[in-house]
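Team,

Forwarding the record for the chain on the shared tracking sheet. I've put the sequence and predicted structure together so nobody has to dig through attachments.
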Amino acid sequence: MTLLVSACLLGVGCRYDGENKPNDAVLALLGRHTLIPVCGEVMGGLPTPRVPSERRGDSVFNAEGADVTAEYRRGAAEVARLAHLYGAKIAILKERSPACGSGQIYDGTFTHTLTEGWGVTAEALRQHGVAVYGESQVPRLVEQGIL
């Protein structure tokens, strides 16, 4: 199966702080599936490292107040295009991210407050029929035979 995966979960240093968040359960999928690393923020033209951003409604602002919505939307469109090109029907994305968050994201106040919602890329993928899961769901998906 071909899966889209947040590149940071595979060890790529593409997070806002230039770091990565390798996830053992995600890395274990490498032997069984084709994993396509994606980063909606980088693919939208944002640098690494970059000022942290959070979603506020349909917009995304960085901690300095700059509106970076266009970059997030551009990256989301590119990731959705890759899903189509590779026939990926499942994405494993970084939880709570303004691009990749799945069901819960930071609320845009930069106070570490979580709220219900989806990252821009996760939302775009869902609109294109791709099932989106966070990294903490991978063990359950493997156990259920979905992955």
